Fold these 2 entries.
Entry 1:
Amino acid sequence: METFQDRTAVVTGAASGIGRALALALARRGMKLVLADIEPGPLGDAEKEIAATGAETLAVPTDVSSLPSVRALADQAFTRFGAVHVLCNNAGVAIGGALQEARHEDWEWVLGVNLWGVIHGIEAFVPRMIEAKQGGHIVNTASMAGLIASKGLGIYNTTKYAVVGLSETLAKDLRDDGIGVSVLCPMGVSTRIRESERNRPEALGGGSAADSGASNSGASNSGASKSHGGPDLVGRYLPPEEIAAMAVEAIENGRLYIPTHYEGLEFWQRRAARIGESFPKPPA
Ligand SMILES: NC(=O)c1ccc[n+]([C@@H]2O[C@H](COP(=O)([O-])OP(=O)(O)OC[C@H]3O[C@@H](n4cnc5c(N)ncnc54)[C@H](O)[C@@H]3O)[C@@H](O)[C@H]2O)c1
């Protein structure tokens, strides 16, 4: 996508971390911003910060795990600004712990936000973006955990591998519609991801259930902190602003993959080599 000026971007998970930095970076490029997040207080603060750049903003409290909520977000975005050109499906939560110990609620919560959240974004926005025939770009936030697996990070890995696969296919499916796709794959970023439990619904083991220790031990903040980004993934912790700048550059240049840490390359190459070595030899 070549032009940002006066076009409209929607960012989910915009109240904190990578989403907030992405929204700010896009506003500074002249975009109008629709900010979506489940946390109304921080969402209001983010809106003030982004409006201070002079950008037109609209903040919409949204639960990305709910299709009606994301459809309502799309309705408000199209009603206010007439079109949407950049969609950042970024909201996400992290959980740690061995798969054999995962509770059904752990799966439901993390898949609901990290995978269904992205699917809902596509369902609610993409047909309308195609219909508008103005082109555009979609950024799905996955993770390095979508490219390599780590012990104790299985639920998160499952969602992020799915987001990488979905994005790769979406890029092919949308090629003729002039809509680009990028998949953001960071390692450590200094955000509140390790406090993801703050947004966990009570019905899915959050709130008092999580506090009382009833949830999977790996789902506690400290467990998620140790497991998320586990030993294989740990590298530098980058500021979210650096990640946002890489994403904006990828939108501008139509790049599909946005790996953010050089430290990750060797791990990915080892995985690719292990898969490569497992293929049968061609018949002689
Ligand atoms: N921080 C890292 O090290 C890192 C690494 C790789 C990938 N990521 C991914 O980056 C994305 C952004 O996370 P972050 O690191 O900025 O964390 P963060 O916790 O600072 O921000 C995530 C935002 O998503 C919001 N959110 C949570 N559940 C939601 C829901 N159901 N509906 C709408 N919004 C919801 C939160 O309120 C928060 O504002 C996530 O997809 C995460 O998996 C983060």
Entry 2:
Amino acid sequence: MDTHPAHSISVVARRTGLGTHQIRAWERRYGAVVPQRSAGGHRLYSEADIERLRLLHRLTGAGHPIGHLARLSPEGLGALARSTPPDPPLVADALVRCLAGANRLDPAALDLELNRAHAELGHHVLVDQLLTPLLTQTGQLWQQGTLPMAVEHLISAVVRSFLGRLHTSAAPPPGAPLLVATSPAGQRHELGALLAAHAALSAGWRAVFLGPDLPADEIAFACRRSGAQALALSLVYPTGDTALPGELVRLRNLVGPRLAVLAGGSAAAGYQPALEAAGCHLVSDLAELRRTLAQLEAP
Ligand code: B12
């Protein structure tokens, strides 16, 4: 985790959902997070400090006393967070607030809700239980004609830039395995691949997200150049693309037999024979993707 002191207390408040008063009080009373100081004496926080404050926020919300939490090491705090399930109403409320912000065409409100939810829920739950339903419900509501296309576009744009920031601030261990996420040529929907990249990040992998609609030779180049152990392909539309089976075989020939190619998305099951022929695995959802990544890591 990045320990470079770079962020003011107001940035930290926005990103953790905590008040500046509370952050200072936890520092003064418990030494929960003691930031460095700028030449002018202002508090400066690192990404590691922000992550710690996020976890402290979530765990105090779940009833753990701050006096106890403040004494835990980063590893101890992380272990406690993993064993403390989030409150389901918390997730449902966050989803309602996100949709309300988007319906008011207020990108700042939606971004604030996503930051808060990240602080309270952690990366894994944020991706699976908030962003996945938010994006899929958005698509469905737009399709039913109950959500204007402008609101759907706003949600996609805010989520994309929020996840971009989260990606650059996530700091998996340097030796962690790496997943490339994209969609093959002709498949222009990108959010499934973006969520797959974040599912990998939240499982402790490094991830490279390449956007959608990439030809096989470009995907293979990226996998080789980045030294990827796995490739996630998102298949959403079209469903019966006659060019895709050949593209998958070409991809397999270019990347060699060892790279794990994991395909998901609403159209993926329809391509099962082509996926099998190219030695790719079908994964049903993000949870199965994480399980598969954990198996790949096992000695
Ligand atoms: C936004 C959108 C677009 C945008 C995409 C923008 C972008 N940069 O991604 C644009 C404008 C490009 C677009 C284009 C088209 N779209 Co469109 N689009 C949508 C919409 C509204 C939302 C899609 C979305 O992002 N959903 C959110 C994501 C998170 O959901 P998802 O992709 O399904 O991913 C989930 C799972 O599938 C899975 N998953 C996905 N990938 C992967 C990968 C792995 C490894 C794993 C484990 C899991 C996984 O995880 C995600 C979370 O559960 C949907 C409506 C809907 N109901 O979905 C239509 C929809 C998908 N589009 C559709 C169509 C028809 C088109 C166009 C043909 C429209 C046109 N006439 O031009 C083109 C086709 C483009 C192409 N060739 O691919 C149809 C598809 C119908 C079908 N399946 O048969 C839909 C369903 C709308 C509809 N009913 O008309 N679209």
